[in-house]
Amino acid sequence: VVRSPSASADEQGKDVMELPIEDLLNVKVTSVSKKAEPYFMVPSALTVITQDDIRRSGATSVPELLRLVPGMDVARITSSRWAISSRGFNDEFANKLLVLIDGRTVYTPIFAGVHWDAQDVMLEDIERIEVIRGPGATLWGSNAVNGVVNIITKEAKDSQGAMVTGGGGNEERAFGGVRYGGKLGEQTFYRFFFKYFDRDGSVDPDGHSIGDDWQMAHGGFRLDSNLSERSRVSIHGDIYGGDERERTFVTTLSPPTQLARDGDVHLFGADLIGKYEHSFASGSRASVQAYYDHYDHEEPLVLTEHADTIDLELQHRIPVGTSQDIVWGLDYRHIEANVDNTPSVGFFPDHRATDLYTGFLQGERRFFGDRLRLIIGSKFEHNDRTGVEIQPGAAFSYSFSSRQVLWGALSRAVRTPAQHESDISATRVAPPAPGSPLTVLEVGGDRHNESERLTAYELGYRARLTESLFADLGGFYNVYRDLIVVRAGTPSFSDSPSPGHVVLPLRYANFMRGDSYGIELSSTWSPTSMLRVSGGYSWLVLDLHSEAADQRELAQGSSPHHQFHLNASLELPRSIELNALVYYVDNLAVQQVPSYVRFDANVFWRPRADLELAVVGQNLNRTRHTEFQSATQVRTEIERGVFGKVTWRFDPQELF
Amino acid sequence: MAMIALVFLTSTGADPGSSEYEVKSAFLYNFMKFVEWPEGAFENPQQPILLGILGEDPFGELIDRKFAGRMVNGRAVVIRRFASLTATASPELKVLFVSRSESRHLDQVLTSVKANSILTVGDTEGFAERGVMINLRIIDDNVRFEVSMKAASQSKLSISAKVLQLAAVVIGG
User: Fold this and answer.
1) How is chain A split among helix, strand and coil, in percent rounded to 5?
2) In terms of Cα–Cα distance, which of A162, A160, A176 is closest to A60?
3) Contacts with A378 (C-beta within 8 Å, 6 or more apart), sequence order
């Protein structure tokens, strides 16, 4: 199962033992089990996206990459906005999914969710993306309720040399990036990068441009140094800026009450992380990490956010004997959040400083020669809004053989109320409905809300059925309590300002509960070294209860019941590679978004070891389609896209 | 967070016959060709090279097949598996592959073999920094390797310039 990109077809059968060492370096290793290897025993619904998966997908952004994860619901709302969740509750700010980039959380405390447009990463420098569907709160803390996305970039020593990449097309109008990695002395490695993209906007259902194109520039660096055999330090940082256009509904009392307006959105952000790790002679390992993160999300038509976060984290892993590990950690986070209020949306107060204190303790014990693993732990948090939150979990994995693993987990997780759920005051005119009077919605926060609570039961099975076939099957049953939705109060009549209208107060409240259950299945099959096929299927049912029927309908109807995907990669002679990806996503009844099939395909060609040419097609089967209907955005459709890309990797010192 | 992930992400033995270890076997073969043991390390010019695999064996029978009938500078290669450290005291041992499963007592392993001129090879993140002479890594689906010159010179082994040139990372001595 070996191929050498530089070798001609008749050489490919050659025994690798005969290859000189310099050629061995160019041999690609592809094995079904390799990817799953370190993750085989993990007692959670984990999917790992590797650098190889990233390249093969043809995706150009982090959100689009997540489509590769079975059970992940990735819906592009407009050109620059995504709704991403797993196991239900999808929305533009899906509030039960925690996202981290190199240990830095990018979940915004203001709106509870992720500004996906701002989460740009140099895709070539990603080591892997670990996606956990289901709760991860025992380790990662609150808001890791329905999933955790952990983006991990390569160490500087694994991204040495220069890389220049660029291209363009109709939707990905122009993009480019440069990266250079080098060495400072024997033990210190660095890289820096800069990238830029210009993406076309989406269209309305009639195919007319909405004008929501966007541009973004992003630079960053990483420095890794081994201070001694036992200790190392890592420092990295980013700075980015972007401009977007949007078309959003502004409401007025006089007809037409819903007015589509075009506005600008400005993004800016910067972060700096330092991490120090030390391995003690006793075998224990400790790390200290500190980061600072700042972002601005300026959206004058809706609301402008500024947030500063400082986070300090300590972790210590202690092996106890040969069959036990104890891990504990402490974390302190300080967040300063400011919003610029507009006449229609305001936060009161418009500035909040919050402190979060966290500790966790986890033990792992292995029995029967490592066949059975038990993990028990808990996170303990104190936040300013809901006080102490305890999130325990217990999990096991049992390997029948090196080929089959059964795992199970019982966990609790909470989602703490976001700032908007306690501080917001927003006024909107309801969309006109036949037979209903003119209605103004007054949305308000409530400081007394409790955290949303989840108890999750999970069971999974992984198997290497044959040398070439790997399967992963998991099921879950989730019980939610105290879900926060808007609860309607008593309507009143007002004739000021005129015309006369009904005022309906809506308050964020713990006013929904319910269950969800489903299965997620994925498989990879690689009958020869030339062909790899992987697929996934997921089924999800939400059974929610609330007297706020519209909120229940919205939550139940915003995530697809069925999702399916199939990816095939074919290696051809002369270093040509074909990839095809098909996705099926069930309809979102409440949003009137029909089910859709999406087909992506791409061709890679490596004429030389250092040069890669690609042609990538996205959404090839249809001119355009809708994936998600956000309440405040006009309906948009995503168009077919094709682009070309060139990537050149070289060592500048060898060039001259 | 990377460290936390380690708690969960403990590896299991690899599939015998997986291509990754086919390529890694070929690397081992090449390293043997490009390493010079100090004078007196072998009793005679025909003495075979004993390759030990310590801990959970990720190669399986594949490595036996791969090395069958192969010679390194006129010496045959004999492969033995060791479950525990004490067995590695054999004076014939010349190359030791330290499996990922030995990560927790790596320091002990390295101390016990340091005095003998044994080429240590691993394929686990951080092993080179901790004193394993050659550490195989997978980067973007290619096998790369890191060399610790420091560890090699402490054991009086000389690694050819060719190998050093091709190393992704060289930790100085």
Assistant:
1) 10, 60, 30
2) A176
3) A138, A360, A361, A362, A390, A391, A392, A393
Answer whether B3's CB lies under 8 Å from A285's CB.
yes
CA B82 to chain CA centroid, Å, is 13
Helices assigned H by DSSP within A487-558? 549-556
- The distance of A544 to chain B (nearest Cα, Å) reads 33
Q: Which residues of B touch A51 (CB under 8 A)?
A: 140-141
Nearest to B19 among A30, A46, A329 (CB): A30
**Residue recorded with tokens 């966290």:** A358
Cβ neighbors of A52 (< 8 A, separation 6 or more) are B140, B141
The model carries a pTM of: 0.82
- DSSP symbol at A146: S
List all residues 6 or more positions away from A394 whose beta carbon is below 8 Å from its beta carbon: A374, A375, A376, A377, A409, A410, A411
Q: What chain A residue is nearest to B13 in terms of C-alpha separation?
A: A402
Residue of chain B nearest A373, judged by CA positions? B8
Structure tokens at B173: 């001595």
Determine how many CB atoms are found less than 10 A away from the CB of residue A392: 18
- Helix (H) or strand (E) holding A571, with range, is strand A562-572
Pairing of strands A576-585, A562-572: antiparallel
The CA distance from A521 to A537, in Å, is 5
The answer to whether A391 and A413 are in contact (CB under 8 A) is: yes
Give A122's Cβ-side CA count (13 Å radius): 28
- Burial (Cβ within 10 Å: 0-12, 13-18, ≥19) of residue B57: buried
**What does the alpha-carbon distance between residue A216 and residue B13 come to, in Å, rounded to a whole number?**
44
Q: Residue B144 forms beta bridges with which residues?
A: B137
**Which H or E run includes A194?**
strand A188-199
Pairing of strands A97-101, A214-226: unpaired
- Dump pLDDT digits (tens) for B101-120: 888 888 888 988 888 899 99
Closest Cα partner for A246 from A77, A115, A90?
A77
Q: CA geometry: angle at A557 spanning A556 and A562, to 5°?
A: 95
- Say how far apart CA A146 and CA A197 lie, in whole Å: 31
Q: Is the ipTM of this complex over 0.95?
A: no
Contact criterion met (CB below 8 Å) for A182 and A163 = no
**Across residues A474-478, what is the average pLDDT?**
97
* Contact (CB, 8 A) for A598 and A621: yes
* The residue type at B86: T
Using a CB-CB cut-off of 8 Å, the residues of chain B touching A52 are: 140-141
Other beta carbons within 10 Å of A500: 12
Residue matched to tokens 């998966």: A53
Residue A590's SS3 state is: helix
pLDDT tens digits, one per residue of A19-30: 888 888 877 765
**DSSP 8-state code for residue A210:** -
Tell me the per-residue pLDDT of A207-227, one tens digit each, with 9 for 90 and over. Answer: 999 999 999 999 999 999 989
DSSP letter string, B104-158? GGHHHHHHHHHSS--EEEE-STTTTTTT-SEEEEEETTEEEEEEEHHHHHHTT-E
Contacts of A319 in chain B (CB under 8 A): 104
Cβ atoms of residues A118 and A112 within 8 Å? no
A602 vs A617: CA distance, rounded Å:
6
